[in-house]
Amino acid sequence: MTKNRSVLSVFALLLTIAVGQSVTAQKNGNSSAVKIPFEAYKLPNGLNVILSVDKTTPTVAVDVWYHVGSKNEMPGRTGFAHLFEHMMFTGSGHVPYGLHDKLTEGVGGNNNGSTTNDRTNYYENIPSNYLESTLWIEADRLGFLLDTLDIAKLNAQRDVVKNERRQSYDNQPYGRVGEIFYAAMYPKGHPYSWPVIGSMTDLSAASEEDVKAFFRQYYTPNNAYLAIVGDFDPAQAKAWITKYFGDLPAGKPVERPNIALAKLDASKRLVYEDRVQVPRLYIQWPSVGTKNADDVPLSVMSSILSGSRTARLTKALVYDSQMASNIFAFQNSNEDVGQFQLVVIPRPDHTLTEIEDAVDQVIKKFISEGPTDDELQRAKAGLELGFLRGLESNLGKANQLLDGAVFHADPGHFSIDYQKTLSVTAADVKRVAAQYLGGNRIVLSVVPKGKRDQASKSSESEAVSLLRTEAAGGGK
Amino acid sequence: MKRHNQVPALFVTVVILLASVASLAQQTLDRTKVPPPGPSPALRVPDWTKTQLSNGATLIVSERHNLPLISFTITFVGGSNQFESESKHGVAAMTSSMLTEGTATKTGDQLSDALQLLGTNVSAGVGTEEGSIGFVSTSKNFEPTLALLGDMMLNSTFPADALERLRGRTLVNLTQAKDQPNVIGAQVFARVLYGAAHPYGQRPTEASIKAITRDDVVAFSKAYFQPGRAIITVVGDTTTARAKSSIEKGLAGWSKAGDKPSFNYPKVPELQPAKIYLVDKPGSAQSVVTIGLPGPPRNTPDYFALQVLNTILGGQFQSRLNANIREQKGYSYGVNSVFSFGKGPGPFRAGGAIFSAKTDAALIEFMKELKGIEGDRPITDEELKTAKDNLIQGLPARFASVSAVSSSITTLAVQGLPDDYYQNYAKNVSAITKDDLLRVAKQYIDLAHLAIVIVGDRSAIEAALKATNIAPITILDIEGNPVAAGGTGATNR
User: Fold this and answer.
1) Could A378 and B113 be called an inter-chain contact, meaning their C-beta atoms sit closer than 8 Å?
2) How far apart are CA A279 and CA A324, in angstroms?
3) Span B136-149, pLDDT tens digits
4) Which of A10, A244, A393 comes nearest B400 by C-beta?
5) How far is residue B229's CA from residue B260's CA, in Å, rounded to a whole number?
6) Contact between residue B295 and residue B112 where contact means Cβ atoms under 8 Å apart
7) Which of A33, A120, A428, B394 might form a disulfide with A108, Cβ 3.0–4.6 angstroms?
8) pTM of the model
C-alpha cells in the first residue's frame, strides 16, 4: 500500500499542476429566491470539491461525505460502516490521536461524523482562521488512516459503538422497531435489510483486516465530496485543497449495483413485546427512494396526513375521536429505497385494533378523494421558511449541497427539489396515495411484556422474537 | 469516474517524463507540520437597541439583514417555580399548550391553518424559571404572524374540552416517561438533592395533572403573561422603528401590569454523606449514572472559574471524564458534566449511560477524575489554555442565526448581566488561574457529600457496586422513594 501510494501520488500531483487552473467550475444557475451561491470542481484524483462563501459569522464548516454506508456492508459485518466512522477519529499518519479535537473544540469549534445507510460524513465547525489545519486533518485521514491503525484502537471503538447501540437502541423503549422493520420489509441479504448500527455479533467479529479492506475500497478521493462553507477566501482554500489532497491517489471506482425496491407479496402483521407500559402501533408501506420522482409527492402527502392540527390523521384520531395521544406520518427516503411510515401512540381505553381501523378509514377516504387545494397549499407554505432557516448554518448549507452532489450528481439539486415540491398537484398526491398506501404493508404492534393480546388483531399477528443483543458479545 | 480507466496508460508516460520534477514538488509538503492558524478574526458581537415600552415591557431589537428572516420572542422572567402551587404542578405547561386552542375570534383549527399558511408556527412554553412565546418568520410574514401571536396570548378562550384532551395526552406522556431510564435518573437525582419541599425537587405528577381545572388555567394565564416581566426580543431583517410599530399594533391592548418575581428559594436540605441511590430497572443494558450535588446560582462570582473547570472536567469531547471513560476504557458512548446555573442552587452533575457490566468500574473512574480535578492530578497549562480557547473562540457560534442571537442577547436581560458581557467575556475567562480552579473544584464538588444515582439492573450491578466501597447503597423506587428492606424496587416489569 505504501509503495502504491507514493507511485500514484506522483501522477496525481503532476496532473494537478498540469490542469491546475483549468478545472471546470460551475456556477449555480438557479434564478429564484432560493439560492446558495456555490462553486464546484473536481481534482484530477476524483475528489469532488464544493465551495460556498458566507461571511456572516467568522466561522467555517468543513464537511466531507463519503459515498458509502451500511448498505455497502457484507452480511456478517453489519454495523461496519459506522464502526469504521469511529476509526476515522483515532488519528492518522501525521495527526496523532487527540490533535483533531484540540484543533477543533480546543479552539472553540467542534467536530463529528455520522453514518446512514447510504453515506458517511465527517465535519468540523471552526473559527475561520483554522481552515488550513482542518483541511490538513481531513486529507491525512483520507490518505494515511492505516499508518497508525491497530487492534487496540479498533477494540476501544468497538466497545464505544456497542455502548452506542445499548444507549440508543437496546436500552430505549421502542428502540428496536427500526431493526424489526428493516428485516421484515426486505428479503434476507438485501442491502437495506439490516440497521446502520448493526448487530452485536457482527460488531464483535469485525477485524483489523476488515478495516483495511473497507478503507481501501471506499475511502478514496474519487468516492469523497469535500464542502467548505462560511467565511473564507476561495482562492486560498483551493490552494490548500490542492496542497493537501492533490497527491492522494485515486482508488478504484466504487461499484454501485442496482438495488431493488421492497416488494411485499402480502401484508404482514407482527407483534413485539417490549419493556414498555404504553403500546404503540407502527405501519410501514414500501415506497421509493430519493432519486424517484414520487419521493416529492409522498413527502407532501405526509404533511397533509399529520403534523398540523388539521392534518387528516391528526384531526381524526388526536382531536376528533381522541383515540390517539399522538400520530406521526412521514416518507423516509434513502438513496435507493424508501418507506412511508406511520406511528400511533394510543390513549388508554382505546385498543390498537380500533386505532388501526380508524387509520384505515381516513386513508381509504383520502385515497378516493385526494387532497383539497387548501390542504395542498398549506402543506407547501412552510417550504420557503424552512429553506431560509437552513441557510443560517454553514453546516446545514454544506449538507444541502453535498446531498445533491452525492445522490443527484448536482450540488444545486436543492433548488430542483424545491421547485418540484411547489409544483406537486392534487392529482399527484392522490395517485401516490393510491399507489403506495393502497398496497401491501407491515403492521407492527409493540406491546408491554406478556400483553400480546394488546396487539392490533392479535390473533392474526406473528410474534417477533429478537435475540438478546448481548448473546454473542459485549461481555467483560 | 470513467476518467480513471485511462490512468494506467497516461501514468507511465507522465511518470517517466516528469518524475524528478514531481519528487521535488513532493518534498515541499511536509505533512508532519501542523499548519498554524491565521490571525484571529475579530469578534463581531451584534449591536442591539434596548427600550422600555409604555406597558413596562423591555424591547430589544438587533438588525441582521443577510436573510429575509425575523425572530420574535417574548420572554417572561419567572416560571413554574415562581407561579405554580405545588398541588397544581403542570398548570404552566398546560396553559402554554392551550394558547393554540382558540381565541375569541378563531377556533384552534383556524389558528393552525392560518399559521400553516404563513409557513410558520408560534411556540409557547413555560419552564421552571422563565417562559416564552415566539416564532421565526420570513420578514414579509412578520406582521400577520405577530397578530396571531397577540391574539393567542391575549384572547385565548381555553375551552374546557381542549383541557381534557391535553390532560389525557399529558398523562400518556407521564406514563411513557416511566420507561425512560434518563428521565427516571434526572427525576430521582432532583428529588434526592432537593427533597420534596424545594421547587427544584418537584415536578408535575399524575395527581397534580388531574387536579388542574379550567379556572386554574385561566388564572395562570392572566397572572403570568404580563408585560412588566416581559423582554421582547426581535432579531433579523427589520429595524427598531418597524419592530416597535408592529408590536404596538400586534400587541395592542397588552396593558401595563405585573413585575419581575423574586427568586427566594427555600434552603436546600442539609447535605448527606455520600451515598449510592440505586433504582432497579430489570433487564437494563446500561446503567444511567448521575453524580452530583446542589451548586451555585448563575450570579455567583465564580461563574467563569466554574465554566473553565467544567470544560476541563466534562464539558468537551476530550474532557477528562470522556477521554477516560469513553475513549480509553470504552465503558460508555459518552459521559459529561455540567453546572446547571439558574436563579437558585442548580445542581452540578456528572454522568452518562454505562454498560451494565462496567457500572462499578466506571464509578471508580468517575470518582478518580473528581478527586483528580481537586488536586490529585493537577490541571496542566495546556488543559487550561485549551479550555479557555474553547470558551472564548466559541463565542461567534452564539451569533450564528437569528434565533441564536436572540437567545444570546435575551439571556443577559433575564440573568441581569451587563450589556457589554460578550465584549468582556474573553477578558473574564482569560483571568482565571489554576489556583482559582483548584479552589472552586474543592468548594463546589464536595466529594464527601455526593449523591450518586444509578438507574439500572439491580441484580446485575448491586454486588459489584457494594464491593467498590465508594459509598453505602440505598434502594429507591422510580419516584425516588425508599424501597422497604428486602423489596425488589422493581418497576413491575
Assistant:
1) yes
2) 11
3) 999 999 999 999 99
4) A393
5) 5
6) no
7) B394
8) 0.91
